[in-house]
């Protein structure tokens, strides 16, 4: 009891305070990673481009993410004492580049900002997790690591909700003003057809397919285009998000200043060298790693593409939802995603990773099947299945790593390979979906169905190989230990009377004493 009370009193609150900036940075990272999805149509309007062209923003962001992971690994290894400063600069850079996105004058500038934003985000993703492990070195870091990923989900959920008041809503304004504009449009057509001199104007108006185009052509002051588009409002949204993100860097700068006079533990490099010396996985282990790489490639592509193009699908499909409603639909996905990540923290203690993975894949397949059939038919079913998809995707990445950790040691090389495969999926699938979602909205759901089915097949095959791998690992883990313990033969060198004190100090020698005593009595 006294030992338990001492542990409760000695809880390292100072380490918890050091963890808070990392947790807050993942909240901001979730917001910055998702905000481009709900505001995608507004970015298209600002640059007068297509969804397919804008979608390359996500590809370059993913390339930046991979580059950031590699560069950060080099910097953190060489400049261990500056780890808080490096991560603080990354957080500040993420806020700066994110706030500049809606001020892009052309697509090239937008792509560059997307790359550097992804660079800072990817480096922050890897660096904050390594920093958290270093902070809680020698202690239980699992709950804090799960909290880190949970806060990312919270940020992803908040992003569409924050974006909603700032989004332009052409469809809703046109619907509300439909009666007035239609009346003015009809009177204009009648006036043009009454005179032959205005016949050419009527011919021009026949080619107009949008009421907003009519207003622009007619120059009517009854409903200004600025009120309809209102696309400049995201120029306020992005700087606010960037300001919040950059302010978090102050926490990292503070602890960098606090640690300037304190020596940093130099044991980190030694532990990494020891892990590198261990034998790399071969044969069956290599096959499991390759399959799991492909699995993470498809899964992250599914997660990023689904969360990014939900708003676009809701607006372009037959249901014809407004941009605000589409933003709420995206919020439902990320909200269920975040809630399930929170539930997964205690659930992982009692439920095996295999069960969580199979149930998650099953939910993704069921949700995508229903969306492929009824997504354009029932609004409530669209919302429900979107929530099911969020619940199914939430814990796949973390649970996959936990599943792999039980079968082999996850070294830095393995972690880097998994990160690269995930970043490639986040790069390719949004571009692929973006080419078709505008003209053929249901192609979006068909692609999601194919990916979720493929992920399920991949994990089933991996789990079959993993069972055999787990058995062989247990056998190999037991045999060497038994061989090392066999040559303990202190019986020959023992003098029972003179060395009795030395024997009592060693557990192995005490065992031998118990064996010697009956022999001497005989």
CATH class of the largest domain: Mainly Alpha
Using DSSP, what is the number of strands? 0
Low-confidence stretches: 1-7, 195-229, 264-281, 480-494, 496-505, 511-522
| Count of runs of 4 or more consecutive helical residues | 24
The CATH topology label of the largest domain is Growth Hormone, Chain: A
The CATH architecture assignment of the largest domain turns out to be Up-down Bundle
CATH superfamily of the largest domain: MFS general substrate transporter like domains
Characterization of the model:
With 522 residues, the protein is an all-alpha fold. The chain has four domains: 198 residues, MFS general substrate transporter like domains (Growth Hormone, Chain: A, Up-down Bundle); 45 residues, no CATH class; 205 residues, Growth Hormone, Chain: A; 33 residues, no CATH class. It has 24 helices and no strands. The chain is globular and about 60 Å long. 40% of the residues are buried. The N terminus and C terminus are likely disordered.
Key phrases:
single chain, 522 residues, mainly alpha, Growth Hormone, Chain: A, 4 domains, 24 helices, 0% strand, globular, disordered N terminus, disordered C terminus
């Amino acid at each position: 009891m006294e030992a338990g009370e001492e542990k409760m009193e000695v809880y390292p609150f100072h380490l918890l305070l050091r963890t808070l900036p990392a947790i807050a940075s993942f909240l901001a990272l979730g917001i910055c990673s998702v905000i481009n999805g709900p505001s995608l149509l507004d970015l298209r309007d600002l640059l007068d481009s297509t969804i397919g062209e804008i979608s390359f923003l996500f590809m370059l962001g993913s390339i930046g993410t991979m580059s950031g992971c590699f560069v950060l690994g080099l910097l953190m290894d060489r400049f261990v004492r500056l780890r808080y400063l490096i991560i603080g600069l990354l957080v500040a850079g993420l806020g700066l580049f994110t706030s500049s996105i809606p001020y892009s004058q052309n697509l090239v500038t937008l792509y560059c900002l997307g790359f550097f934003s992804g660079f800072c985000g990817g480096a922050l993703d890897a660096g904050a997790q390594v920093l958290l492990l270093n902070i809680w070195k020698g202690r239980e870091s699992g709950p804090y690591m799960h909290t880190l990923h949970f806060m990312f989900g919270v940020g992803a959920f908040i992003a569409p909700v924050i974006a909603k008041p700032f989004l332009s809503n052409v469809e809703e304004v046109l619907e509300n003003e439909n009666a007035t504009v239609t009346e003015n449009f009809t009177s204009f057509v009648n006036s043009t057809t009454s005179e032959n001199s205005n016949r050419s104007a009527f011919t021009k108006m026949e080619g107009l397919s949008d009421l907003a185009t009519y207003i622009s052509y007619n120059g009517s002051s009854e409903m200004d285009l600025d009120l309809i588009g209102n696309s400049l409002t995201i120029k306020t949204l992005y700087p606010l998000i960037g300001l919040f993100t950059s302010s978090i860097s102050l926490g990292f700068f503070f602890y960098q200043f606090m640690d300037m006079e304190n020596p940093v533990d130099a044991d980190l490099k030694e532990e990494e060298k020891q892990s590198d010396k261990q034998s790399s996985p071969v044969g069956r282990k290599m096959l499991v790693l390759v399959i799991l790489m492909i699995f993470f490639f498809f899964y992250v592509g599914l997660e990023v593409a689904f969360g990014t193009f939900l708003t676009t699908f809701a607006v372009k499909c037959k249901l014809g939802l407004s941009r605000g409603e589409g933003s709420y639909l995206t919020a439902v996905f990320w909200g269920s995603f975040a809630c399930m990540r929170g539930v997964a923290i205690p659930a992982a203690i009692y439920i095996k990773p295999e069960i969580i993975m199979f149930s998650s894949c099953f939910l993704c397949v069921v949700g995508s099947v229903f969306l492929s059939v009824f997504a354009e038919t029932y609004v409530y079913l669209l919302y429900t299945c979107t929530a099911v998809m969020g619940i199914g995707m939430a814990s796949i990445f973390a649970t996959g790593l936990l599943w792999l950790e039980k079968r082999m040691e996850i070294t830095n090389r393995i972690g880097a390979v998994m990160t690269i495969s995930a970043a490639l999926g986040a790069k390719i699938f949004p571009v692929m979906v973006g080419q078709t979602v505008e003209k053929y909205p249901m192609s979006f759901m068909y692609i999601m169905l194919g990916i979720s089915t493929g992920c399920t097949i991949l994990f089933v095959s991996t789990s079959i190989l993993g069972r055999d791998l787990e058995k062989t690992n247990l056998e190999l883990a037991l045999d060497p230990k038994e061989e090392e313990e066999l040559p303990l033969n202190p019986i020959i060198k023992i003098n029972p009377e003179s060395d009795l004190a030395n024997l009592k100090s060693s557990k192995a020698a005490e065992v031998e004493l118990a064996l010697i005593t009956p022999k001497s009595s005989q």
